[in-house]
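User: I'm curious what two different proteins look like when written out as structure tokens. Can you demonstrate?

Assistant: Sure. I'll show them one after the other, since each token string lines up with its own sequence. Here's the first protein:
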Amino acid sequence: MRRSLIGFGWALAVSVLAVPAAAATLYVTNTKSDSISIIDTNTFEVTGTIPLGKGKPNRVAFHPDGKTAWVIYDKSRDLGVVDAEAQRLVKRVKIGGNPYNLAFSPDGRSLYVLDWSSETSKDEIIIYDLNAEQVDGRIEVSTWPAHSRFTRDGRTFFVSGETAGDLSIIDTAARKIVARLWTGADAMGLALTADEKILYAAAGEEKKVIKVDTATRQAVAAIPLPGIVHEATLTLDGQFLYTTLRKANKIVVIRTADDKVAATLPQPSYPDLVVMEPTGQYAFVTNRYADVVTVIDVKTHRQVKSIAVGKAPHGMALRPHP
């Protein structure tokens, strides 16, 4: 009996280990197809397409509960709300004058819209109360707020100013900038380490990534890169930083232990954004002018797949799961 129970236990363990990890759902906005391509991150296949209507849909972000995805429209200057279960656009909302990017507060109560100056707005962060469905506050920032990151507790919000070449550090309770530092012309992508001690800031035309000590709010190092850098995304284990050099059609991988280049990967055309899927095995990269999303094996830093999507893919967001 003991032997048979041991055998049963071993078989059960093997069967449990053999069950594949639950697939994550990746939304990709196609700016010239007016749609979202839905990708299964286990199979690397497009499983559906969501029409978004006219207006040049660009950036996309999921609400923390995973029920809705919100989309920025560049031309029509409004936002779309997508029901993730029904896989359809349910409404469009006018929040800012010229919205460029967006992020949800970690508690899911507010949507922070990075808004560029227009006839009706300044360069600012617009705080939208999701329950009241109205603008709840505004924080003026430097020109062209581009990318952002929240700390896990939601108390601090980092924002890069593209044309200003700076980083604004915002206290979300006080709703004001508490520090601002120069990162370099064409400030773009931001990546925050798991312990939240270091923020990596892409300084585009400066051809480098700035390391910022979040405690002192000072730059502590600069990592040179062989081209204009756009995106900066950490692998889930924090060992590598993936950066995109759009005009050079390259991904440059930086080893965070010594800030040295670990790999350089050619890309089809104009690599834009990078998303790490939940298992940490793969990175997904939008290639805007090739109409594909490439899949990179993070262990080998090699491309393993090219996924055809709509025209001019740019924004990406993983659907959160409980």
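Here's a second, unrelated protein for contrast:
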Amino acid sequence: MVDIMALNEQIKKESQFVSKLLGEVGKAVVGQRHMLERILMGLLSEGHVLLEGVPGLAKTLTIRSVADSIHLGFQRIQFTPDLLPSDLIGTMIFNQKSGDFAVKKGPIFTNIVLADEINRAPAKVQSALLEAMAEKQVTIGDETYKLEDPFLVLATQNPLEQEGTYPLPEAQVDRFMFKVIVTYPAKDEELEVLNRMTAQKAPHVQKIIGMEELKRARDLVSNIYIDEKVKNYIVEIIMATRHPKEYGLSSLAPLIQVGGSPRATIFLTKAAKAHAFIRGRGFVTPEDVKAVAYDILRHRIILTYEAEAEETKSDSIIREVLNKIEVP
């Protein structure tokens, strides 16, 4: 039997760093709280994040600031059509002095990798990255090398420019835990951006927690209590995306080609736990599930041509499903 009261007190105590970390990153980044929380939740639940938004929305700055606040290694890789897998994972180089081949590790050997404009790289490079994401290891020559712990990939893609790009196949997009839509700042936030970025000295982010504290928090997240009723609620949501007619959502049946995969069920549970943690709770509520449902499901529900013709977005389908499924 789980002692929920004791667990709740422990989580409340151990999650105090969250508000400090968000405040510290807030010195460098104006607004973008939603994106920032999802990146932190990805770190806490070992899930990779896909960020979609037009250029100039502080995606790189946010990621670098999070890495600095936790004292993590950070590498930014600009994906281009001429990029090779070896540019990412590394290669064998010949040492003329010794006459032997030596391993030169690529930029993927770090804690946080920013894959900038992932849809600009060809399929071979995308596959190399996605394999590393899934296996947490890479093979160079005859040797297999473990990647750093923690290891998080944050990929960005520009929704506007599609010419000369290699869109990620749906099966590969499914590897990302979150797909976050990054939007423009509000009017007052825009003014604050203007004031900060035209000042003489750019803000510097201080270290808030260390690697060990992050790993301890990650272990606590996995131990957060989730009731059977909430588990069933999660399964019902996923099932409704697969069999909408059975849930009284007949209008959605012609719009959904493929519903959420079992990975969606797992990630929705993990994300709900991480959301509870950053809110200082040791148990998951249905509100936690609702809060993360859009970011977990929007890239897992594949729409039909009919839905695309009607300009129906996956977010509107998720909204209908959440409104229909009874909350425990």
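A detail about the second structure: The CA atoms of residues 259 and 301 lie 5 Å apart.
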